[in-house]
Design a protein that fits this description.
It contains 9 helices and 49 strands. With about 800 residues, it is mostly beta strands. A 5-stranded mixed β-sheet has the order 1-22-21-24-25. A hairpin with a 4-residue loop joins strand 48 and strand 49. The two termini are about 40 Å apart.
């Protein structure tokens, strides 16, 4: 990952750092080999019916930026007894995943759990994997879900830096741990155990998670905090034992600087080492010989928003004290595109239209429009809170998104971080070299490791001929050479449907063919969940009465499902739609005929020159492509049009053979059958490249002559099958511009527009058109994305009109 965080090696009390500490090396090793990823998932709804399709849009982060590490994304569904219901695998493009899965119609009404992870995450602590409960309703089930509004809480107290020393004024965070509905208000006071009648200090809850107070503790005294909620429930919690001497740490996070002060009232220490890290990246290091009663400053002008951990070590690299804080909580660096409403109407089934002006260097957004009654708020969790907070803090936080709104309480966020400890890694363990083992290596996209045996022994240094069965599109022939152990490896492949591969050793006679075997295993696969699922919160399962009513949201979803069936039935009777579908099918048929499986992609853009008039005239085909595909630009190198995809030079393929752009000069458009743009991932069995431009020339229905003779020899051979990615369903929309479709009886769609990958042209505003349902009075308009170069999230959320 490109680092834009500048390493600040600062000399405090100003002694020269003579050598790199092993803590530095340990952190560098973690960053390069064991970097922790985290996942944010936005689903199209918060609750579902059995039999429905769940659509999701996910982002994978690392070090508070979009991850460029993992390319495989696993998502699973469990019941509350930890039985796996289904599992799916999808590719990650530029840190973003789009997918869907159908919830089995047979599922009983209950709370289920969605789990998501990458291969690298499966090597590290399971606490950092994504696990979220999701209620699934089934009106035919004998039991039903009801909302559980009961409230229960416990409390803990946390001195700043976890040091509580006599005579030192200390900030102390009070943390509420809520089960169920948190109290709307709470407050408390502090007493000394021997004098409970005297309130030493008082405090109020800053929010439902945390409160804070300051105290100068006295030696040999025992303190307690008495906490009372708005319902009259009262609990007491003991403060830590007061230490006579020790090391303390004070931290203040400001817009321009993070200030810290170390104080030692105990044994003399020759020098201290101060290390600050954001994620796995070292951003500050100082060696302190002499402590002064003054704050030292870490400039923030080259840092990014995120949780920073500040750790103080002694001269033997023992951790003395540590503290987390948020970098620049007063100034959140968020990019938000300008929105220009053209038509905004809350009338029943009215057309709405908006323009999204492009942001520089942002090539795509996720754009969603919700009926606000279904998505009343995204305060519980959103892109910002997942990126900046819950990706690091894994204990339960109620409404974490509240810390990143315009009306955010920065004091509450700081108190929350005082109450937490860094858990991504343990300094003592990594300094000692006790790193997690890499069991699941995150290879690029679909990857397989194979082993070839001949007469039950490894077939070393052999050429293995393989034939990919491409069905109607023909077949592809290739070969690999085994190593000294008879093994081979290929990766960086993108395909969805399973691929059948027939094989034989090069030059093998009939006798050797029968004694040759190939064993293949995917290098990235599903990993069983070891930890227990979290306890269900907010719901309980009760017997369903014969006259039992459904929650209003579920009744609307049931009605929406019925309306969708009615809508689909009307679509198939409309000739215009049928013709449009037929046209799409002709292009898909051409694509299947001309391209083999490894030269297809979920992110491809296809231009059909056979069934559509492309008006390409006689100009160079690369010139013709200029401006026709978002993210593709054509530059001129020595007068030759050369394609670039997202600022990277793209490969050019002619009939699936890698070629130079200059060879296309003179190729007439009359001879072109199809052009494809693949923007992400590898192309072909070699696994090379990051997308490209593929040109297919017109030909008959026969297979290429160059392959025919070779392929015809490979008959009656053994084969193996490679599994591809799961395919995501296309999100359904509603078009009431058609008079027939406007006649459906009801429309209660909770999602009015869903586009997880809207490609943005740098010069042209993007257009969003959607029709209202029957009841929505306000729309929750959401845009998400990420600028990886600037470590900046793109986030826009607004209620319209």
């Amino acid at each position: 990952m490109k680092r834009i965080i500048t390493f600040c090696f600062v000399l405090a009390s100003f002694s020269h750092i003579h050598s790199q500490q092993s803590a530095d090396k340990a952190l560098q090793y973690i960053n390069e080999n064991l970097s922790q990823e985290n996942i944010y998932i936005l689903t199209d709804k918060d609750l579902y019916l059995s039999g429905e399709t769940l659509w999701f849009n996910a982002m994978v982060f690392r070090n508070f930026s979009i991850s460029d590490f993992s390319t495989n994304f696993f998502i699973e569904l469990y019941d509350k007894s930890k039985k796996q219901i289904l599992r799916k695998r999808f590719p990650i493009f530029n840190g973003v995943v789009q997918g869907s899965f159908q919830i089995p119609e047979s599922l009983s009404e209950d709370v289920y759990f969605v789990r998501a992870y990458t291969p690298m995450m499966s090597n590290l602590k399971e606490d950092f994997q994504y696990i979220k409960q999701i209620p699934i309703y089934n009106p035919s089930s004998p039991k039903k879900l009801v909302t559980d509004k009961s409230s229960s809480w416990s409390a803990t107290v946390h001195p700043e830096g976890n040091s509580f020393i006599a005579g030192n004024q200390t900030k102390i965070a009070v943390r509420l741990h809520n089960t169920g509905t948190p109290p709307s208000q709470w407050d408390g006071y502090v007493i000394e155990k021997d004098h409970p009648e005297k309130k030493i200090t008082t405090f109020k809850g800053l929010d439902e998670n945390v409160g804070i107070f300051s105290l100068i503790p006295e030696k040999d005294k025992i303190y307690e905090a008495i906490i009372t909620d708005n319902n009259g429930l009262q609990k007491s919690v003991a403060l830590p034992k007061v230490l006579e001497k020790g090391v303390s740490l004070q931290v203040i996070s400001e817009k321009e600087n993070i200030k810290y002060k170390i104080k030692n009232t105990g044994e003399s220490i020759p020098y201290y080492t101060v290390i600050a890290n954001i994620g796995d990246q070292l951003v500050y290091k100082a060696k302190v010989n002499q402590l002064k009663d003054a704050f030292q400053a870490i400039p923030t002008n080259q840092l990014i928003n995120g949780v920073l951990q500040l750790t103080v070590f002694d001269d033997k690299e023992n951790v003395l004290v540590s503290r987390m804080c948020f970098v620049m909580p007063q100034h959140l660096n968020i990019a938000a595109p300008e929105i220009k409403p053209e038509i905004v109407s809350a009338e029943k089934r009215a057309l709405n239209s908006l323009e999204i002006k492009p942001l520089k260097d942002i090539i795509n957004y996720s754009v969603i429009v919700f009926d606000s009654e279904f998505k009343k708020s995204l305060q519980d969790e959103n892109l910002l809170s997942s990126l900046w907070l819950t990706g690091v803090i894994k204990s339960k936080i109620d409404r974490p998104a509240q810390y990143f709104t315009e009306k955010r309480n920065t004091e509450a966020l700081d108190a929350l971080l005082i109450s937490e400890q860094w858990k991504s890694f343990d300094w003592k363990e990594i300094i000692a070299g006790n790193y997690p083992s890499i069991i699941n290596n995150p290879s690029k996209y679909i990857s397989y490791k194979g082993r070839v045996t001949l007469n039950a022994k490894p077939a070393s240094q052999q050429n293995l001929l393989m034939l990919i069965d491409g069905g109607k599109s023909g077949s592809e022939f290739f070969q690999v050479e085994t190593d000294s152990n008879g093994e081979f490896f290929f990766d960086n492949m993108l395909f969805e449907k399973p691929i059948k591969i027939t094989y034989q050793l090069n030059g093998a006679n009939a006798a050797l063919k029968s004694r040759t075997n190939v064993y293949v295993n995917p290098t990235n696969t599903f990993i069983p969940l070891k930890k227990e699922l979290p306890a269900i919160e907010g719901y309980q399962l009760v017997d369903r009465a014969s006259d039992s009513s459904q929650p209003a949201e579920i009744s609307k979803i049931i009605a929406a499902q019925k309306a969708k069936k009615e809508y689909d039935e009307k679509i198939i009777t409309i000739e215009e739609v049928k013709l449009k579908a037929k046209k799409k099918n002709l292009t898909a048929e051409l694509n299947n005929k001309l391209s083999s499986p490894l030269y297809r992609s979920m992110s491809e853009t296809v231009f059909d020159f056979v069934n559509e008039n492309q008006s390409a005239s006689s100009q160079n085909i690369l010139q013709w492509l200029q401006g026709r595909a978002a993210g593709l630009t054509i530059s001129y190198e020595n007068g030759i049009p050369t394609p670039y995809i997202r600022q990277a030079k793209a490969n050019v393929y002619l009939d699936e053979m890698l070629t130079d752009a200059s060879t296309l000069t003179g190729l007439s458009s009359d001879n072109i059958a199809m052009v494809k743009i693949i923007k992400d991932g590898a192309i072909g069995m070699s696994g090379g490249g990051s997308g490209g431009v593929l040109i297919y020339t017109k030909r008959g229905d026969t297979k290429p002559v160059t392959k025919a003779n070779t392929l015809s020899e490979m008959v009656n051979l053994n084969f193996f099958v490679m599994e591809g990615y799961n395919q995501s369903e296309e999100y359904p929309d509603s078009d009431y511009g058609n008079s027939e479709l406007s006649k459906i009886s009801s429309d209660y769609r909770p999602v009015l527009y869903w586009n997880p990958n809207m490609e943005i042209d740098s010069d042209t505003p993007a257009k969003v058109d959607f029709y209202n349902n029957d009841t929505a009075k306000k729309f929750r308009f959401l845009i998400m994305g990420f600028d990886a170069e600037k470590y900046t999230p793109v986030y826009y959320e607004k209620l319209l009109p």
